[in-house]
Amino acid sequence: MDWATVASNLVHDTIVFSTALIFAALGGLYSERSGVVNIALEGMMIIGAFTGAVITNVIQDSGSIAPWIGFIAAAIAGAIFALPHAVASITFKADQVVSGVALNFLAAGLAVYLTKIIYNGAGQTTTLTEVFDKWEIPGLAEIPYLGHALFEAYPTSFLAFIIVFLTWFLLFKTSFGLRLRAVGEHPRAADTVGINVKRMRYIAVMISGALAAMGGATITLTTTSNFSHNTISGQGFIALAALIFGKWHPAGAMGAALFFGIAQAIKALVQVYGLTQYVPTEFIFMLPYVLTILVMAGFVGRSSAPAALGKPYETGSR
Amino acid sequence: GSKTEAPQGQTGNAGGTEGAAPAAAARVGMVTDVGGVNDNSFNQSAWEGLQKLRTDLNLPEGNVNFLQSTSDADYVPNLTQFVKDGWDLTWGIGFLMGDHLKKVADENPNSKLAIIDAEVDAPNVESVLFKEHEGSFLAGVVAAKMSKTKKVGFVGGVEIPVIKRFELGFEAGVKAADPSVEVIKIYTGFFDKPDEGKSAASQIYGQGADIIFHAAGGTGDGVFNEGKNRKSKGEDVWVIGVDKDQSLTFGDDITLTSMVKRVDEAVHRVSKDVIDGKFEGGKIVWLGLAEDGVGLADTSSKNVPEDVLKLVDEYKEKIVKGEIKVPAE
Amino acid sequence: MNKAIAIFTKESFLVPVIAIILGLLVGAIAMLAGGFNPILAYTALVEKVFGSAYNFGETIRQITPLIFTGLAVAFAFRTGLFNIGAEGQFIVGMVAATTVGVAFELPAIIHAPLAILAGAIAGGLWGSVAGYLKAKRGVNEVITSIMMNWIALYLANWVMNSFFVPKGQQRSEMVHDSAIITITWLSQMFDNARLHWGTLIAVLAAIFFYVIMWKTRTGYELRAVGLNPHASEYAGMNVNRNVIKAMFISGLFAGIGGAAEILGVFHYQAILTAQPGYGFDGIAVALIGGNTPIGVILGAILFGILSFGAAGIKFTAGVPVELIRVVIASVIFFVAAHGIVKVFVKPILKKKEGGN
Amino acid sequence: MRGITKRFPGIVANDNISFSVKKGEIHALLGENGAGKSTLMNVLFGLYQPEEGEILINEKPVKITSPNVANELGIGMVHQHFMLVETFTVTENIVLGNEPKSGLQIDIKKAVKAVEELSNQYGLKVDPNAKIEQISVGMQQRVEILKTLYRGADILIFDEPTAVLTPQEINELIEIMQSLVKEGKTIILITHKLKEIMAVCDSVTIIRRGKVIDSLKVKDTNPDDLAAKMVGREVNFSVDKQEAQPKGPILQVENVVTRGNRGVNALNGISFEVRSGEILGIAGVDGNGQSELIEVLTGLRKADSGRVLLNGKDITNHTPRDISESGLSHIPEDRHKRGLVLDFTMSENMVLETYFHPTFNKNGFLDYAAIDKHAAKLIEEFDVRTPSIHTPARALSGGNQQKAIIAREVDKNPDLLIAAQPTRGLDVGAIEFIHRRLVDQRDKGKAVLMLSLELDEIINVSDRIAVIYEGKIVGIVDAKSTTEQELGLMMSGGNRKQGGGTDE
Ligand SMILES: Nc1ncnc2c1ncn2[C@@H]1O[C@H](COP(=O)(O)OP(=O)(O)OP(=O)(O)O)[C@@H](O)[C@H]1O
Ligand SMILES: Nc1ncnc2c1ncn2[C@@H]1O[C@H](COP(=O)(O)OP(=O)(O)OP(=O)(O)O)[C@@H](O)[C@H]1O
Ligand SMILES: [Mg+2]
Ligand SMILES: [Mg+2]
């Protein structure tokens, strides 16, 4: 086995694992850049994973379009699910962390509750027959090693990278982005120049829900092919970590998500090469988390959150 | 003071059965781990066994029931719920429930309990275990004979004795049939994470293996996904299923065969024995090839050629006769 | 004192109560939507919890770890830190208690306290890692504590597999009887429900929380640093040391919780395949309890009753146990968005005033 | 504005206020802290909705429901706490909410050009591409003004614009205001500085406790009259004090060097001393090392070299607690950031630096009864207006917060009291009180080191004045014999006086 193949496989798997995290971290980015803490990414991913699986399951007779419809349905469900978080933290000025925690509980409960109702008491959806197939970019995918690594992936992965770029453009090149960031840094300043702070935050939180849900749906529609109580199991929190790790920047968040992805891919690789003889499996499982802490402590250090993050905005007009 | 036999307001599922069950009708309950009764694995299998029991004996709907645990701490109260409610038999499903079931059995010596996959030493518990290694040996023979790349893989859930039996049996089977075939093994550490299974499978196929045998419960779903994905890309890969005939779930275009573990049969039989008054408390039952407790799925002939199946039968005979002793630990 | 009893004042008491009622209503709606009978279900819940001595005892067992993790989260909250890592601290507490319980043989009078102390310190140290990284390296404690949860899980398994788990088992050997904190007579009174001294320790821990936080110099410093680190620095407090201290004490609570679970409930430690979940539930408990010690106890009682009673609604009314999570989520949500609740509270307050 | 009433829980901030401003004039709004000026202007700007009253612009009644509406009506506001996004550039801040576009993108080039044009037109020099966090406070204020002009404001509200400016910047601002009026703009100016009102305003409205006391032409009044109307009694401006009787040195600063936040040296071998029984004022343009100096003296920042002696004892790089215990008190320049834990009660805040003393702390347990007693005493003594000692500090007005801090610091009976911007943003009544306290401290034979950006204050209160420039003392003068001109020159780095150190 040559190392080029290993590397190629590793990159390929890294992208598979990172995609959901990229979506969710970007979701968190919108919300937090607007000043609303989003610890509910986990819950939003759960709702996305659930909706994606159920809708696809229901319509999978329609063929390969089914996962796409499931995916879009997930995004819509995510945006709607994010609404209570917006109402609580923006309109009712609730503690955003508390509201987020509530949503995480709600998602975990509701999704499995509904699953059991829909699937006759079963803790998971039936296995989907129609899920996303990997795409190969014509021409590029044939490049030795590199093609498999970079140009053969699920459509959601390509989409994720496109959304990273779009987010960067939206945030730093358009007036929507300027306003969104202003609302997250200094809402009063934004208010005094006529920007509707609350509306911006509502939009941001709902985009956040949609993207995080797309992340969740990515998991059910590419890697697990079903939804169960632990389909997400903590990935929303990892995405949140990626967002902070990536300093609330789209490219940074993507980089951090890829980092977690690579650590996950390495985990399987290490076992394949029999390294577990030398290192206990438990330590390999720990690897991504230890690395994250080391990297954060060693290189990243203090990260600067949006200045108004977590602070409800009072217009004074009541 | 306790009121153990307190009549429950109403027993039965949603909608309930209004006219209460006949007094003589037997009641059998089971407690699952976090996976629940639809885990495509042995919880589901066990539940199917109870369902079959119900239809066979024409019991009312509420007379078989299950409780799903949400954490380790739930096992004892869940088992106790059935026991204190006076159910005729209470099943604990899975190795991990062993200690908990023992505690409940000791505290309630007049109750009857049974467990799958664990040995519980108590006079009122019947333990049912399977010789997974024997069945897995046959799966190994199929894999070795049918691998074109001379590499096969094994994906395990958590590294517990039960799963170890799968692994060792499989490897022994492979080596017996063709010592030149290499076995790549990965333990994912989970029984319920298909994405981990998929990752493991991807790595193993990436190493050039073309057949993977999994013993990972729901995690194994990911192995099937990865296999299907590759198959649709034209790669010639297979998956060997576990516990149930998984070709029924994932299709026989990817499922080479399955190592079936007849949890449903066992649950059905032991439950029936209890109802018939033939409960053998304290007994530890091992079900292997000889007892038809394990074996390859009947649908194997779809994908496995005649000659290989013949070889499988030969090995089976030798194992049953004791000529081959398959390692279990 | 004001803060601790604030929960009993009219409005701050009514808000959680109404939040709970609204939460149960949401649950009822969800049950109706799913084709279940909410009245039957809630009756079953109450019967499950209060219907037999055994189940009542088990509910107390369920409540106990929630008090510990709730206190852990609340303590950190009070000092301006979000300890999402009670989970990991709980786990290392379990490991330490198991280690002491299995590896040593001591007289009971020393053994059990030592095992609990070991759990406490392990939890505290585990928590202070996040505190240290925050103080010295500026790393967000939310990230570190999430990571530390997973590290704790695998580390625990490694320790168990390497030192304490007999071959072919999935759990450690039993801790020695001298380390066990089960209250046998009480347990027998409750039909063998797993009752243990940990519950009493939990209540003492809540008192300890209150005293430390609002009566001592340490608490004064911790609160000051949490509320305004700049002013604290100006006033000559060591901000970094206080952050670490806060996380240490926070972790202490969770660690004892883990130790009590081993010594009082299981008597051995199993290989973990998932997070035990008490840490995350502790967040909910702390939030429902308004981050006060009394609130945490009440929150844990509510949470414990609901989640233990969940099995009852499944058993009797066929409702999936997850419904209870929906109820709990709604309660937290309404506590958070008390603005919504106040809409309901106002008329009640008015009526009362009118009546007086 | 007619009959405006705005209530907050427990207080009527504006009580039936009516006042009018003529087109093209500069109208001052004068009043004590908490009189209700900001509230009134926030109503005019649409940030608050009044309970009663109406607003007329050009004699037409209008409903100003949001700042958006205010902007449309040509009302712009320059807030005391700037409404600028620190991480944005000058241009981004100015165009925010009104961005020129090309296609989907913001047309940044066009925006920069617009900013440059405006800045030339009104003589408001700014660097359009600089980030706000990198520019001076004066420049930030110009950005604020440009923001309103960019939106085409005709009525400009300035809320205490000079409180944060250096004398030079104030002069520039006054010129800017005058040129704005020439261009046909109308200005409402909130300030506590009577001198400024006399200098630039046409008319003035005085508010006390939410009510209008009087509205009159500036040329018909004088500072004493205004002050009396505002406070409701006669106010003494010049700090009357005896000749200082300085004795031995309390604080000696020798060749201290330290790096600032940007990595360059903020203090460049600074040396001076403060003697007992004197007030040493440090004058200087903001950003010449004042903040760093205080931080080094109080132990909040490390000195790279040099020595600091307090009562002859070396306290260089000791911890803040150690230094505080050695007899140094400090009234911080940012009371919200450093001075108070806003969510602590007043009582708890009063022992922020002494809670561990045996009086309050028994074996690690705090004696809250003793603390409350102590707080009640201080609050009474320093006339801090608070509903109760258990009220959170956050709920007090700025002036009362400052009084509380001063009470706490003076009560420590320190050998050296450092007062940084002790009267920033306070009304004349409060200022008088605080100055009195500083002089009392001196008269008790203690040393006082005062830093202020306001030359008036420096000259009035200090006995000697040291001028800081680029992290060094460039000269020390006698307060009685110096002039604003002389100080201004030294502050801008001109005419370095020889023997800039102390007269050892
Ligand atoms: N948002 C608010 N909520 C409650 N009370 C407020 C609020 N804003 C102002 N107040 C109160 O209203 C009164 C008037 O405040 P205002 O800010 O208008 O005073 P001001 O004249 O601007 O004082 P200063 O000179 O300190 O700026 C004060 O007593 C203040 O405490
Ligand atoms: N929610 C509140 N409750 C009580 N008092 C408040 C509240 N908000 C503000 N205040 C008080 O009202 C006064 C005015 O508040 P504001 O926010 O206007 O600050 P400020 O320092 O006066 O600034 P400016 O002079 O620019 O208005 C302050 O003294 C503040 O302490
Ligand atoms: Mg004001
Ligand atoms: Mg002010």
Automatic annotation (TrEMBL), chain A:
GO terms for cellular component: plasma membrane. The chain crosses the membrane at residues 6-27, 39-59, 65-85, 97-119, 153-172, 202-221, 282-301. Pfam families: BPD_transp_2. Its main location: membrane. InterPro entries: ABC_transp_permease (IPR001851). GO terms for molecular function: transmembrane transporter activity. Keywords: Cell membrane, Membrane, Transmembrane, Transmembrane helix. It is found in: Cell membrane. It is a multi-pass membrane protein. CDD domains: TM_PBP1_transp_TpRbsC_like. It comes from the Bacteria. PANTHER family: GUANOSINE ABC TRANSPORTER PERMEASE PROTEIN NUPQ, SUGAR ABC TRANSPORTER INTEGRAL MEMBRANE PROTEIN-RELATED. This is ABC transporter permease. It comes from Brevibacillus panacihumi. The lineage of its organism: Bacteria, Bacillati, Bacillota, Bacilli, Bacillales.
TrEMBL record, chain C:
One of its GO terms (cellular component) is plasma membrane. It comes from the Bacteria. CDD domains: TM_PBP1_transp_TpRbsC_like. Keywords: Cell membrane, Membrane, Transmembrane, Transmembrane helix. It is a multi-pass membrane protein. One of its GO terms (molecular function) is transmembrane transporter activity. It is found in: Cell membrane. Pfam families: BPD_transp_2. InterPro entries: ABC_transp_permease. The chain crosses the membrane at residues 12-40, 60-78, 90-110, 116-135, 147-165, 195-213, 246-271, 283-311, 323-345. PANTHER family: ABC TRANSPORTER, PERMEASE PROTEIN, GUANOSINE ABC TRANSPORTER PERMEASE PROTEIN NUPP. This is ABC transporter permease. It comes from Brevibacillus panacihumi.
